[in-house]
Amino acid sequence: xxxxxxxxxxxxxxxxxxxxxxxxxxxxxxxxxxxxxxxxxxxxxxxxxxxxxxxxxxxxxxxxxxxxxxxxxxxxxxxxxxxxxxxxxxxxxxxxxxxxxxxxxxxxxxxxxxxxxxxxxxxxxxxxxxxxxxxxxxxxxxxxxxxxxxxxxxxxxxxxxxxxxxxxxxxxxxxxxxxxxxxxxxxxxxxxxxxxxxxxxxxxxxxxxxxxxxxxxxxxxxxxxxxxxxxxxxxxxxxxxxxxxxxxxxxxxxxxxxxxxxxxxxxxxxxxxxxxxx
Length: 278
Hints:
Layout: H1 3-41, H2 46-50, H3 52-66, E1 73-77, E2 92-97, E3 116-117, E4 130-136, H4 145-155, E5 156-167, H5 185-194, E6 197-204, H6 208-226, H7 234-255, E7 264-271
Parallel strand pairs: 1-2, 1-4, 2-3, 4-5
Antiparallel strand pairs: 5-7, 6-7
Helix pairs in contact: 1-7, 6-7
């Protein structure tokens, strides 16, 4: 290779290096601009974005509890720690659970006092005993959910109300007592109707983008827990996926509700009056 060729190659390499540097600089600028835009459009707090599932469910149960007449007899099926006891303090609130899961930890995670320790398909009370049946995040944990639903309807009074929630999308939890991946709105409509109930409402607990917000936050927790390497940008990555993106996606969910990817449904139904079943 001649001296001129060597010099030409050197100049060419130098230009390539220069443009590569400028491209990297441009990418950094664009990334910073994107983050600023996401921050601007994410007005909610990180906690609001990450904890919407339980918060929305609690709000829904509280709203239904306020609509229950004082003195009504309420059974919390699969009550566990009975987190909703105080919401029904104007009622005669009772609890049922099989009480065999030993995964609860800490004072706040012990079983509450359970009035009826039994299988959910065989609750030892007479037919038509309760004005209200409450069952939240339980159906995924029972082997025979349709039978369980039938049992809850059996012990509801004619005209009695059922307040039900269960996940449509969730990871494994309370193992080994996790048998089903989730319940669709069609499942509730089919079996509640077949078992003699009238559907009052079926509401999605947010949509796809809120679900995505939760999973982004979950990814950041796992990333942090496992101490995964990300080229020295671990802190920045965790902030992006665990804080910025959840807030942005949750905000977007308010504008675009894609319920087919909801995290679950909140369901109210009413047992039909006996004379209407003839």
